[in-house]
Specification:
The chain has eleven helices and eight strands. It has 356 residues and is of the alpha+beta class. It has three domains: 109 residues, Butyryl-Coa Dehydrogenase, subunit A, domain 1, CATH 1.10.540.10; 101 residues, Butyryl-CoA Dehydrogenase, subunit A, domain 2, CATH 2.40.110.10; 126 residues, Butyryl-CoA Dehydrogenase, subunit A, domain 3 (Up-down Bundle), CATH 1.20.140.10. Strands 1, 2, 3, 4, 5, 6, 7 and 8 form an eight-stranded mixed β-sheet that branches. Strand 2 and strand 3 form a beta hairpin. The two termini are 35 Å apart.
């Protein structure tokens, strides 16, 4: 059984999702940029620090429990969730930084939600080429190249950026979230999460000084570890499935309405998939062979499929008004579609295509 602390974290996340995030989600979906005050409730509840170091008084949840909290926030507002969840990657990276000064200066502030952070590293998954290169110069590293994905531009104060050196090292750097010499921003036109400040970054000689380097990894080792980390996928889609299933229950028109049976079946399936999620996450804890990675990727595909079916059922039950931008059904369907490609690896792509 979950501990009282875990139950409290999930319950608090659910309250914020239901009472604060969900009622405003339609407006946030169409906003130019998420207002910073949308994160205040999450920060006040300590939910910016759920992956932070326990020795500093943060964290305390295991990986599965973190995933439950994340999915719960996703059920409230997908855009707010997506910017917030990127922040956790920076907390992890900063907590593990070999640069003591950066770690001590930023980790407490990040975990308290005093600062929102973003990251650009997805390009590292392209093992066939170095998308963003790092070249050693006097006193730092010069970055060149194109990072096609960075969320929270205009929201986050700082970004971690990964670049690859000619010798096969990944250099983790810290930059300010503003346009500057050697850094350009390319807006993206997304079908969903347009308010998350998701952009591409173009590096044209940006020099990052040594005191803003978090540390280094071997690129091959990082990719091997990332393959395991990303295998089970993002639980945000299960938050979407949860919200869609609850809204579907509200659409039941009578005892013979098939929407009622659909909602009950989806709820049972969602409960089952969460039990499976714990098993999968625990199996990946010590690393994984190809068989375990395939199993985890199949689980990811099952989560995506559930999100698609739950949002389709909600649209069918609601009818034409569900496609109005003022109704959450169409937004949830777009969010479910987005998670198909979010953090997609070669394993995840193959599993999704096998499931069709």
């Amino acid at each position: 059984m979950p501990s009282a602390e875990v139950e409290s974290s999930i319950a608090v996340a659910q309250r914020i999702a239901d009472e604060d995030l969900f009622p405003a989600a339609q407006d946030i979906d169409r906003a130019a940029l998420i207002p910073l005050d949308r994160f205040a409730g999450l920060a006040d509840a300590g939910l910016f620090g759920i992956v932070g170091p326990t020795k500093l008084g943060f964290g305390g949840l295991d990986v599965h429990e973190q995933r439950r909290v994340m999915a719960t926030v996703s059920s409230g507002c997908g855009a707010t969730f997506f910017a917030w969840v990127q922040h956790h990657g920076v907390v992890r990276a900063m907590s593990e930084a070999s640069n003591d000064e950066l770690r001590e200066a930023w980790v407490p502030r990040l975990c308290r939600g005093e600062v929102v952070a973003g990251t650009a590293f997805a390009h590292l998954r392209r093992a066939d080429r170095r998308a963003v290169t790092a070249t050693r110069v006097s006193g730092g590293w010069r970055l060149e190249g194109f990072a096609p994905w960075a969320t929270s531009w205009g929201i986050a104060e700082i970004f971690t950026v990964a670049a690859e050196s000619e010798s096969g090292e990944v250099i983790w750097t810290l930059i300010d979230g503003v346009e500057q010499s050697g850094l350009g921003v390319v807006p993206l036109a997304l079908a969903v999460f347009g308010s998350t400040g998701t952009v591409a970054l173009r590096f044209d000689g940006l020099v990052v000084p040594d005191n803003r380097v978090l540390g280094t990894d071997h690129a091959a080792s990082w990719r091997a570890s990332d393959r395991v980390r990303a295998a089970a996928g993002q639980t945000g889609v299960l938050g979407v499935a949860d919200r869609a299933t609850r809204l579907l229950g509200d659409e039941v028109r009578g005892p013979d309405d098939p929407a009622g049976n659909a909602a009950r079946r989806l709820r049972i399936e969602l409960d089952d998939i969460w039990q499976r999620d714990r098993v999968v996450v625990e199996s990946l804890g010590g690393g994984a062979d190809d068989a375990l990675l395939a199993e985890a990727s199949d689980h990811r595909a099952a989560c995506l499929d559930l999100g698609q079916r739950a949002t389709t059922a909600l649209l069918a039950a609601r009818g034409g008004s569900g496609m109005d931008l003022n109704h959450p059904a169409q937004r949830l369907a777009r969010e479910a579609a987005f998670y198909v490609i979010q953090a997609q690896t070669v394993d995840g792509r193959a599993a999704t295509l096998r499931s069709v």
